[in-house]
Amino acid sequence: MPSWSAYRDRICTKNDDIQGTAAVALAGVFGALRISGQKLTEQRFLFLAVARRTGIAELISEAMTLEV
């Protein structure tokens, strides 16, 4: 039986620990912005270098790019 790494370039997968946490965090940010009436691009975020937080930072930066 081949290891998971044999498929990593052929099958799109999701790491729930990183991407799932990022999606929930961004949803919370969007909810807060809806209440405050502010824009995502007007916010500042601080992240510590941990895998989950790196995923959150990446997703928030992508969302900021799409907002502009």
Structure description:
It is a single chain. The protein is built from two helices and no strands. Helix 1 (16-36) packs across helix 2 (51-67). The chain has helices spanning 16-36, 51-67. The chain has one domain (14-67). The chain is mostly helical.
Task: Provide a brief overview of the structure.
With 68 residues, this protein is mainly alpha-helical.
Please name the defining characteristics of this protein:
68 residues, mainly alpha, 2 helices
Number of strands: 0
Helix-strand pattern, N to C? Answer: HH
Unreliable segments of 5+ consecutive residues: none
| Radius of gyration from the alpha-carbon trace, in angstroms | 15 Å
Number of domains: 1
Helical content band:
55-70%
Query: Into which percentage range does the β-strand content fall?
Result: under 5%
Mean pLDDT: 84
How would you summarize the topology of this molecule?
Blueprint: H1 16-36, H2 51-67
